[in-house]
From TrEMBL:
Residues 196-294 form the HTH araC/xylS-type domain. Transmembrane segments: none annotated. Keywords: DNA-binding, Transcription, Transcription regulation. This is Helix-turn-helix transcriptional regulator. Pfam families: HTH_18. InterPro entries: Homeodomain-like_sf, HTH_AraC, RmlC_Cupin_sf. Signal peptide: none annotated.
Length: 295
């Protein structure tokens, strides 16, 4: 079943943004006009890595059930399999997006053994930081250079120029994250650490385990204490986060027309299709078939 889950490819993402594909495995998106409407009102996974820089505006975006508010001068790194859900475009946005596949990254890396420089790509969650003005300016220049080398056919050293432009940008991003890595870890509170552990546990078990007690036992605390911590960090209780995980997965599966509603109900371990329909109707006010028609 997992192999059948629909993911947004680079091409799918570009189609939603109204842009044309560039080189195989790499695309640089630079807003030609402000984004005012939500291009992705549904949750989705991607088959690629994305570095997104917010130049202006703001949006509420959910990554793996955790809410983020992205604003001007923010950078966010999104790994494959992260569930992304754009909740709201709060004010018209101008962004830069560098999207690439793992195959492209490996074939265009100067030193494949330099794991530490790019360890942030191993993360299953989105990583975001506030950039300094000079960092934004530097990354914009490097992105424009990469865009030029990715869209211009050179008769002599086109591949080499693309490779070095890509690595120059990647190392610049790596330097920013490396500089702040210890600071990020130090600032992570005990509550945030527990929330991170809960989310990982949830990702691995939500299809079969939906009782709060299972998660609180696994984290060696009472159900009430766990809910209090999660509410403080994420704004939602344990039960609400479990339901959100099921709803998000259901929406992703329903976006795949090759799967029947009965198959999806079985994949999510509902006792029957009717119970699945009632669950979805309760939480998003749409039946599975009604939601499928809207996507």
């Amino acid at each position: 079943m997992k192999e059948n889950i629909k993911k947004n490819s680079i091409r799918d993402i570009l189609e939603a943004l109204g842009d044309d594909p560039q080189a195989e495995g790499l695309h640089i998106y630079i807003s030609k006009e402000d984004i005012t409407e939500n291009p992705f009102p549904y949750p989705f996974r991607s088959d690629s890595y994305t570095i997104m820089i917010i130049l202006s505006g703001s949006a509420k975006i959910q990554f793996n059930l955790i809410d983020y508010k992205l604003q001007a001068d923010d950078i966010v790194l999104i790994s494959p399999h992260t569930v992304t859900h754009v909740r709201e475009i709060e004010s018209s946005m101008s962004i830069i997006g560098i999207t690439f596949t793992l195959t492209f990254a490996l074939s265009h890396s100067l030193n494949r053994n330099e794991v530490n420089a790019f360890e942030f790509f191993a993360s299953k969650t989105a990583l975001n930081l506030k950039l300094k003005k000079e960092e934004v300016e530097s990354l914009v220049k490097l992105t424009n250079l990469l865009h030029e080398k990715n869209t211009t056919v050179s008769p002599f050293y086109g591949k080499e120029l693309l490779l070095h432009s890509f690595n120059l940008l990647m190392y610049q991003v790596a330097e920013i994250y490396r500089e702040r890595y210890d600071e990020i870890i130090t600032k992570m509170t005990r509550k945030e650490e527990l929330t991170s552990k809960f989310i990982k546990l949830l990702e691995e078990n939500f299809k079969k385990e939906r009782k709060v007690q299972f998660y609180s036992d696994a984290l060696y605390m009472t159900a009430g204490h766990l809910s209090k911590i999660l509410k403080n960090v994420s704004g939602r209780t344990t039960g609400e986060l479990i339901d959100a995980a099921v709803i998000t997965e259901a929406c992703i599966l329903l976006a795949n027309p090759t799967l029947s509603i009965s198959q999806i109900s079985d994949e999510l371990n509902f006792s029957d299709q009717s119970f699945f329909g009632k669950f979805l109707k309760k939480h998003i006010h749409l039946s599975p078939s009604e939601y499928r028609k809207k996507t």
